[in-house]
Amino acid sequence: xxWTSLLYAIVSVAGGALGARIAGANLWHGAIAIAISxxxxxxxxxxxxxxxxxxxxxxxxxxxxxxxxxxSVRQMATVVVVSFLASLIVGFLTGFVTGxxxxxxxxxxxx
Length: 111
Fold this sequence. Notes:
The protein has about 110 residues and is mainly α. It has helices at about 5-25, 25-45, 50-70, 75-110. It is built from 4 helices and no strands. It is elongated.
């Protein structure tokens, strides 16, 4: 597993906890729901599924776990959306930084 995948997983779980806190749900329930959904997504990708299928599986898994914890629809939606937004923002920043570093390396090799 690449270090970026681990970073996205950690940020997703933290986003799930933050989403639960914002929605007034149990913080641990949000974190656990997203942690389980991340494992499902990684498992689907390990089985050769596309990113879209893995993402859909992650959403379905997080909703099912949130339902099992007795969250309302608003709470579930907040947990899932905040988790994905946190991961998306960190993914963008990671891509920007690594792309910038790669550009500097290539510029140094060209000179």
